[in-house]
Amino acid sequence: MSEKSGKAVTIWLLVVAVLIAVMVVVGGYVRLTRSGLSIVEWNPVTGVVPPLSEAAWQQEFAKYQQTPEFKMVNRDMTLDGYQRIYYLEWAHRLIARLAGLIVVLPLAFFLWKRTIPWRASVPYLLVAALFGLQGYLGWYMVSSGLVAAPQVSHFRLTIHLLAALLLLAMTLWLAFNRLYGQSGVNWRHWSGIGLLTLAIIVVQIAYGGLVAGLKAGHISNTWPLMFGVLAPAGMLEVMDSWLLSIVAASVTVHFIHRWLAFVVLAAALWLLFRQPAGKSAASRQVRTGAAWLVAVVLLQILLGIGVILFGVPIWLALLHQATAMVLFAVAIHLNHRLAHAL
Prior knowledge:
Blueprint (H helix, E strand, L loop, with lengths): L2 H30 L21 H11 L3 H5 L6 H34 L9 H22 L10 H27 L11 H23 L27 H7 L1 H24 L7 H29 L4 H27 L2
Helix pairs in contact: 1-4, 1-6, 1-11, 4-5, 5-6, 6-7, 6-11, 7-9, 7-11, 8-9, 9-10, 10-11
């Protein structure tokens, strides 16, 4: 395999990683503009083309008028208003389809040319398969908002988000393996705190998904107090059990998400200050990566506080979501360097 061909695979993986992060942010924009439930069917092929005639538009609008969102939220919506939210969701799905092609077509070419040997193809094929699964999970999420309530299941939204994180982690890890020319893992050096920090970040992002699905960001617009107190009473008694309360009660989910951020910060600081002053390039990369992790966590906390104080403005909420993707990518890179540091 030529150096040029190997570089092409690396660039492709990094492009796919960026596309995954972009799709997460675009999905957030669609949700925040209440556009995600405008298309009530999942047509992976025929859905590429939007309605082209007045009759076709009226037919789509009639389907939307049968949904809970129209009946409970948008009863006064006109066809023009419907077209605006339809085009946002249509563009979201079109971007996802194009992203799928960017995954599948270059991968097929690389396999055909043996740029990616078949004996090493399993992780790449798994990335393609997970990309297809993401499409189904997106519809699985949307369909939950077309039955009884005018919003998607916050559990399904979070599953969709976690699947995106898994896909992003796999893609980045493969790209880093190629960038650094390493594929093995130094398990003795890969510290538990690195994995623990990554796990806490994943939980925190998952809670961001729960907050989004429950629209819990609107629960309180003050910080650090909620309703005039630091910790509202009875947060574990909102639902039938404490376990259900911590994943399904808006006030509890919001409270956990705002303070779990500081657990992430503590873990990142611990990781930074316990790094030995090794001389290898990987060791230097670990220390630099840990410093970047702390910086991005601090930025993310400030953005999160801003989202609360300003009442969840769309642009700030999207910046907060995009920074979460950057934070996750930095944590993956840091763990990759920990796994190879000497």
